[in-house]
């Protein structure tokens, strides 16, 4: 901790002399042992503060200059404090007023009419500045017509880009910044009237006008969409905070009926608002909306009214969350190649009809042309067969999913529960070959390969497959056992690797093991020959350096 008594020993004489030449003004001890002042340097002025304790140690300091560490301005104030505390006469400080800029001086010499005239001319060429001025000093309205709201949006946009159609990302950012500020009073108007129909009408007007702007320009930015998304979220949250529950229910039903009872399409901004209202609702509110949805789905079932799978999925989420799926499950049939939707249905059906789940999963798996899409269905079947204790079928599923998610536990389970020994041998040969070819790209597969051989006590095979693609950390896990099986073959294998798929700490560990197990002459006879190849030479050097 820096002590103001030791300043001369802490800083160079040159730095101290430079600090002493600075001009301090308006020095004040605003509270005990906390000193503040302004320090002028050239054309700049800095706000400086230092706090000390009873031992004259600096416990806090700040300066708004950009210098790092204990700057010259802080040093100047510290020197001044030291002189005060030691009752030394201090250099007279210039009690001058803060510098006034040329612009400030010019404004002081103008009358109000001249200023007004210049500002009006300036605004004609700088619409963005005019908008900022109006936001700061314009009339604060509490009511807005449709025309006024559209005008606010249009002027905010035109102040930045005029009538341009090709708009850059920075320009979109400016537009959004101005819209955020200019629409604040409109938003406040909406929140004050959130329990009235005018709120939704204003929301729709703003979204429609912004979307119309978005579709008529060319830009790479998605900030307009993000602005609408945030606006929608704020609306939903404020709507759900209506204190009168009956008023909320009447409006919520009216809003949802635009979708549930409507005969035509609705704007996507309104569609997503409905689901945001549900998302941010409390539990009783969610139950109310879910009841509306369930009742309408029952009507759709009777009248054979269908929706696209994407739309059904949104309603499916509401039914599942509120435990209403079972009564309307016929409205949610399996849709091939719609994995997200299907998996939700199947996981819910597991509670009621496991046979149907098995049937659907197998039908979907048989239709899929890409194996990667089958894994979620394998997991569902795996869960089902485990619950039913159907070990034979469970082994079949584990075989199907093994290549995409191999584990030694699954391998052991398959071996123990595969009823056809010939089929298991084919599976073993295929899987070990696939794992073996992927050592370099997927080191974790090398670990699983060796775990399988460990389970089978097949250490001879382990020795056979040691090469440059095998990670050293895997060798280290089995080095003791491999050494005991055939210490000469083990040494030959590790010494002949032409490169190393490893990290330094693992190489060190293996080198230490070799030095602890083999005599120096033996190691030298193998590793002194490895003068070529970056990996082998590096490891050989490491081993030889460890020899005494």
Automatic annotation (TrEMBL):
Highest taxon, organism lineage: Bacteria
GO MF annotation terms: zinc ion binding
InterPro entries: Znf_SWIM
Protein name stated in the entry: SWIM-type domain-containing protein
Domain SWIM-type: 46-82
Keyword annotations from UniProtKB, A to Z: Metal-binding, Zinc, Zinc-finger
Organism of this sequence: Chryseobacterium manosquense
Metal-binding listed as a keyword: yes
